[in-house]
Each structure stands twice: as structure tokens, then as C-alpha cells.
């Protein structure tokens, strides 16, 4: 059973919006085994009064399903997120089935679906995209976050790994979808 926690930032969640979200997101429940309880957290935001950002998170025992979309139409954003979550579930289920066929506990993370063989066949092509085709090695130069962001931008990458000059820890800076930057500090 899915429980919903729907929040709206900068606007009110109407009963029609709530009903649409619940109706669409409940479609993914068919992938779960009977008796699975999950809380679906939905955050809705308006951006620049023209776009809506919708984020759906479903924390579960072995994984967290998460989808985020920006769209001018809130209902379309929810539809896109549900499609994204279904792809994530299928991909995860395929990996589990291939890797842990003899381990029953992980293999039952999702309920079986009738067209599983068709899904597995179509996802085999997607699995090939996950092959590592290049390996790089480099020395981590001590620097601060600003210098790391400059290095990342000069290289044209979306992330950059560096050693923090102050803490001597390995950190990562990355470019976010909204154009701002994020920092991941390791411990």
C-alpha cells in the first residue's frame, strides 16, 4: 500500500492535483510484492511562475526510487516522472534477476509481471550502455572549492574530483541542472 505525503512550495495542492498524483503514482505499485508498504514523498514547486518542478521519492528497503521533472504543465511532469520510475524499476529488477538468481530475498524485491520476458529482452539493450569503456588515472591536486569549479568548467565536465586543501579529504564538485554547483564532501 502506498501512502502519500504531498507538499507544494509556493502554491496550494488542490484535491484535483492530489487525486491525479495518487492515481498516476499508484501504477508503480503493481511492481511491488503483495503487502509492501511505501511512503511516496511528492514535492511540487513553481519556478519563475512559468515552470513547475515535481519530485517523487519512494524510499524502500533495498533502494530509493526517485524522479524529478520540470515542465510547464504539472500534470505532464507527473506523467513523465511515473514513466521514469517504471524504467528505474524495470532496470533494477533486470539487474537483480541477472546477478542474484540464486538469492531469493533480493530476487523478490519486485513482484513478477506478466510480460517480464519482453521487458528483459528490451532492457538487455539498455544494459549494454552501462559498460565502462574508458578508465582514467590522475593525481588529486590540493585546492579549494572555487578552484575545483574553475577546473571543472575549463575541462567542460559536469563534475570534478579534488583533494580539499584545508581538510585533506577527497571532495567532488558538480554542476546541477539549475546551473548552480554542488559539493560532496567525503568522510
From TrEMBL:
<dbReference type="InterPro" id="IPR036567">
    <property type="entry name" value="RHF-like"/>
</dbReference>
<dbReference type="InterPro" id="IPR034694">
    <property type="entry name" value="HPF_long/plastid"/>
</dbReference>
<dbReference type="InterPro" id="IPR038416">
    <property type="entry name" value="Ribosom_S30AE_C_sf"/>
</dbReference>
<dbReference type="GO" id="GO:0043024">
    <property type="term" value="F:ribosomal small subunit binding"/>
</dbReference>
<comment type="function">
    <text>Required for dimerization of active 70S ribosomes into 100S ribosomes in stationary phase; 100S ribosomes are translationally inactive and sometimes present during exponential growth.</text>
</comment>
<protein>
    <recommendedName>
        <fullName>Ribosome hibernation promoting factor</fullName>
    </recommendedName>
</protein>
<dbReference type="InterPro" id="IPR032528">
    <property type="entry name" value="Ribosom_S30AE_C"/>
</dbReference>
<keyword id="KW-0963">Cytoplasm</keyword>
<keyword id="KW-0810">Translation regulation</keyword>
<feature type="domain" description="Sigma 54 modulation/S30EA ribosomal protein C-terminal">
    <location>
        <begin position="128"/>
        <end position="183"/>
    </location>
</feature>
<dbReference type="Pfam" id="PF16321">
    <property type="entry name" value="Ribosom_S30AE_C"/>
</dbReference>
<keyword id="KW-0175">Coiled coil</keyword>
<dbReference type="Pfam" id="PF02482">
    <property type="entry name" value="Ribosomal_S30AE"/>
</dbReference>
<comment type="similarity">
    <text>Belongs to the HPF/YfiA ribosome-associated protein family. Long HPF subfamily.</text>
</comment>
<dbReference type="InterPro" id="IPR003489">
    <property type="entry name" value="RHF/RaiA"/>
</dbReference>
<comment type="subunit">
    <text>Interacts with 100S ribosomes.</text>
</comment>
<dbReference type="GO" id="GO:0022627">
    <property type="term" value="C:cytosolic small ribosomal subunit"/>
</dbReference>
<dbReference type="InterPro" id="IPR050574">
    <property type="entry name" value="HPF/YfiA_ribosome-assoc"/>
</dbReference>
<feature type="coiled-coil region">
    <location>
        <begin position="82"/>
        <end position="133"/>
    </location>
</feature>
<dbReference type="GO" id="GO:0045900">
    <property type="term" value="P:negative regulation of translational elongation"/>
</dbReference>
